[in-house]
Design brief:
CATH class of the largest domain: Alpha Beta
Shape: globular
CATH superfamily of the largest domain: NAD(P)-binding Rossmann-like Domain
Radius of gyration: 19 Å
Length: about 325
């Protein structure tokens, strides 16, 4: 069984990808400092605790498990934090990625699938966005992702690294079998916060602006089911390991849903009302973010399976109920 190192494998997307890797016959090895991940979500392979900044520890882990590739999810991912403390974001996301690339070169690991983001595109791009949309980030988080993409391209040119930069839109939902899901503490994402408001563990859901130039006045986003993301990561890994070249791909559904549509789906899933409070717009938020995922579908071989908003929101609610996360309890 071929080993694959998964940085951030105890986290939300990383744990789903570990399950998909195991199902495809790989041995996922999670490398995670557990600062935001959860030990009990590492179920499909060994956990190696460690920080990307600990080069000696990282090198020992790679030397012991001898992975054929790295899937890289570990990152500081909160946009607001990146604005307040950009140094910490660049240290984690750029310096950490460079240290990982150094360790890979030291041990002859020549393939990486990288968790990038639509935040590399910026706020004013035409919709839907394809992979040729100019990349003009508006915050340090987006810049840190773009800088790492640049490092991957340069490592490919200089050292022969095979790489895939997968630019997510809004990862959402949970494993349909309920084995892993979203459990951030604190939670910042719209779908789980809407569900928490319905469950009564939040007093209300803040809606950041109701006067956007959209059909119902609220922002529109492309919500892509995390299990589809996981399946596409395995397909990207197979693409690299069979020598078919490096990739830059958008991962989404190609469909946008407004905040009010998400609220309505949360109410259907829970059978409860979602109390809301209209708050001011957040600086830098675009009205609409939707992926053109034509290229990803062609290259990775299949379109998304979970495209209905009710399916996505319902899977998140079932995981929250099953897990009984402290932040989700009444």
């Amino acid at each position: 069984m071929q080993s694959v190192l998964v940085t951030g494998g105890a986290g939300y997307v990383g744990s789903h990808v570990c399950k998909a890797l195991a199902g495809a016959g790989y041995q996922p090895v999670s490398y995670d400092d557990l600062s935001t991940g959860h030990r009990d979500l590492v179920r499909w392979g060994p956990l190696e605790e460690g920080d990307l900044g600990d080069g000696e520890r990282l090198s020992r882990v790679i030397g012991r498990h001898r992975p054929v590739a790295v899937l890289h999810f570990a990152a500081a991912s909160l946009v607001g934090d990146s604005v307040r403390d950009p140094a910490a974001t660049y240290r984690a996301n750029v310096a950490g990625s460079l240290g990982l690339l150094d360790a890979m070169r030291r041990h002859g690991v020549e393939a990486m699938v990288y968790s990038s983001s639509c935040a590399t595109y910026g706020a004013d791009a035409p919709q839907p966005m394809n992979e040729d949309t100019p990349q003009q980030p508006i915050n340090p988080y987006g810049w840190s992702k773009l800088m790492t993409e640049r490092m991957l391209a340069d490592h490919g040119a200089a050292y022969g690294l095979q790489w895939a930069a997968l630019r997510y839109f809004n990862a959402a939902g949970a494993d349909p079998e309920g084995e892993t899901g979203e459990d951030h503490r604190p939670e910042t994402h719209l779908i789980p916060r809407a569900l928490m408001a319905a469950a009564g563990t939040l007093p209300h859901l803040d809606v950041f602006g109701a006067d956007w130039p959209t059909a119902d006045g609220t922002c529109v986003r492309d919500y892509v089911h995390v299990s589809d993301l996981a399946r596409w990561h395995v397909a990207a890994l197979d693409h690299l390991l069979t020598g078919r070249g490096s990739l830059r791909l958008n991962l989404g559904t190609g469909r946008g849903h407004s905040v009010r549509e998400v609220i309505a789906a949360a109410e259907r899933a829970t059978g409860r009302a979602v109390p809301i409070r209209i708050a001011p717009r957040r600086a830098g938020d675009p009205a609409v973010l939707v992926a053109d995922c034509t290229r990803a579908t062609a290259v990775l071989g299949s379109p998304p399976v979970h495209t209905e908003l009710d399916d996505i929101v319902g899977s998140a609610w079932r995981f929250m109920e099953r897990r009984g996360c402290p932040s989700h309890r009444r």
